[in-house]
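for the writeup, i need someone to sanity check this before i put it in the appendix. the sequnce is what the collaborator sent (i think, or maybe the updated version? ugh). structure was predicted straight from it, no edits. if anything looks off just tell me and ill rerun, i have time this weekend
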Amino acid sequence: MKLASPQVFTRTFDSPVGPLCLAASDAGLHAVEFASPRHPVPRGDGWHAGAHALLDDTARQLEAYFAGTRRSFDLPLAARGTAFQKQVWDGLVRIPYGRTASYVELARMLGRPTASRAVGAANGRNPLSIIVPCHRVIGAGGALTGFSGGLSTKTFLLTLEGALPRANPLL
């Protein structure tokens, strides 16, 4: 007997970085995706546009973030991924607002100092952009590296947070 897919409600949130697809259920927030994600969150049969209180709360918190009055999010999360991916995503929320970390630093923080490539791959599969701040991860030399929302969006978010790394530390 096949179990019924959970009801996941979606809506579009118009943000300063373009439309974001929000997806939530009673279990928590499943996705915050840019318009053309590199790795879209798999949708089940139970996904459909609709109203849910968590979508409203997510939109309010995102509005406050973009207005510069919120530095962290207080939302129940229900991201699906491997145990390693979830470990990396948990590490991402420990990078403070206004700060960045390199893939190497994040790997060390997770107790996996030789896993920076795997950390980068898991970071790229983060289904909760902005909420789980994968935009705060940069290259070892301070370079802005790939981001699902594009480098201009990453630049916007890091500028909003006052965390844009300097290309030349002597300036």
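Residues 167-171 have pLDDT under 50 and may be disordered. Helices lie at 53-66, 83-92, 103-109, 116-124, 151-160.
thx in advance!!
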